[in-house]
Amino acid sequence: MIMAMAKSAILNSTDFFKSPARLVSRLNNLVYSTKNRKQKKIMTFQYLMVNKQARSATYANAGGCNPFLVNGRTGKVSELALPGAVLGAFKKGDFREMEISFVPGDALVFYSDGIVEARNLAGEEIGYERFKDMLLKNWSTDCEQYYNSMAAEYQHWLGG
After folding, report:
1. Beta strand 45-51 with 56-62: parallel, antiparallel or unpaired?
2. Is the pLDDT of residue 47 over 80?
3. Residue 79 φ/ψ, nearest 5 degrees
4. Average pLDDT, the chain
5. Per the structure, how many domains does the chain have?
6. Is 154 helix (H, G, I), strand (E, B) or coil?
């Protein structure tokens, strides 16, 4: 129910689309005001607004994992740290936004905590460092190939 409400709020908030932080703040107020106090309903949310002409994006985060920016030319993976409370946790959330610049060959990777917390048959967690290594090892400028290579290595590592 909360997801449906959040989706509706996003689709009906075109005036807030110019600022991801304002949109996230508005969603936070909506989730906080409608949740049952006995049920601690919260949700993570990330919003990315892309400007193709400027090769940039503006990003806001509400409790999601920090995305990684993969630079295919330099072989570096940068964590885009932008902390933010989950939606509905506080009446007034302090949500900020980050400006991200891209160049050809960059990839912005969003993922859930389930990816980095997954365990293989030996009980080892993938973790952030191993995931970052996988991002570099499987790098491709072809998005579909990049995704498929990552998914295959992930499944192999899990033992499947």
Report:
1. antiparallel
2. yes
3. -85, 130
4. 88
5. 2
6. helix
